[in-house]
Design a protein that fits this description.
single chain; about 210 residues; alpha+beta; Protein Transport Mog1p, Chain A; eight-stranded antiparallel β-sheet; four-stranded antiparallel β-sheet; 2 helices; globular; disordered N terminus
Amino acid sequence: MSMFALIAILALAAPPAAAATTTPASSVAIAGHGSCFIVYGDNWAFMAEAPKGWLAACGDQALQSTVFTLWPSNESPQALKTIMYVTVSSLGHDGLDDFVKGDIETAVNRDAKSRKANVRQPPMHVGKVRTVSATRRLVHFEHDSGDRDELVEYIKGPTAYFIVALSTLSPAQTARYRGAFQAFLKSFSPMTVQFEKGAKPPSSKH
């Protein structure tokens, strides 16, 4: 089943951090230990490794609006409760903190609009922005009812911002998979990409 087919059955569609503009990607699998990938677009790239026990999809096979999507191999595609994903946004002229602030404001405004249409929807809470390093910030998004819980790390790369998220249906699931999320973040390495004059990124390979 392609990741596009999962959109209708995945209760995590349009997560708070998905507000950033994404760029189509191509992917190349690297032979070696584990599931290691390089994912790249016109002017950005990153290398990452899928944690043990997780499946991954890149480029046009990833969940819509993402360039890289992962899910636990022990979860049924018909009833996914947990995903990790990556989106990409242009670097622009704003600093990382301004980018994070803008993305949070977009998520809060979208949540308010959604609750206006559905008064029974619980409000979203945004945790304190934590500084992980000079180029990384971590934010916790959650709802009162516990029906969605999301950890989001914002990463500034050489040519783009990356949003890396763990999205679950409960705080208990977030706690369960936090180790895998941290392992994925540890493997996540933004890169620069260069193509010869006139060359274009090749089509996705899966």
